[in-house]
Amino acid sequence: MPVTEFAILEARAPYTADSPIIRAFLQKVAQRQAAWSGYPLLFFRHANTPAIILLISGWKDIPAHMEWIASDGNQELLREA
To answer: DSSP state, 16?
Structure first.
């Protein structure tokens, strides 16, 4: 059964959701995760807190998401973050 992923990310000062380094990182995340899951990622900036980024995406099922979490590609992104 398909599931929706909703994540709340927070950039640490001095960065915000609009910082070029954060935008480049999120683009890399979107490309890798979408290639793995087959679902696009959508990012939104919190209206009142510019450091908060909201991520929404989908997965075929929970085991598919867990495989991504454990994957080398995702672990590399987590280290980079």
So the answer is: -
**Taking the model in full, what pTM does it have?**
0.87
* Cα dihedral 31, 65, 41, 73 in deg (nearest 10): -20
Query: Whole-angstrom Cα distance, residue 7 to residue 56?
Result: 7
- 67-76: pLDDT as tens digits: 999 999 999 9
Q: Which amino acid is at 35?
A: A
Element (H, E) at 24: helix 20-37
Give the separation between CA 6 and CA 57, rounded to whole angstroms: 7
Three-state DSSP class for residue 12: coil
The residue assigned the tokens 């995760």 is 33
Express each pLDDT in 13-72 by its tens digit: 999 888 999 999 999 999 999 999 999 999 999 999 989 999 999 999 999 999 999 999
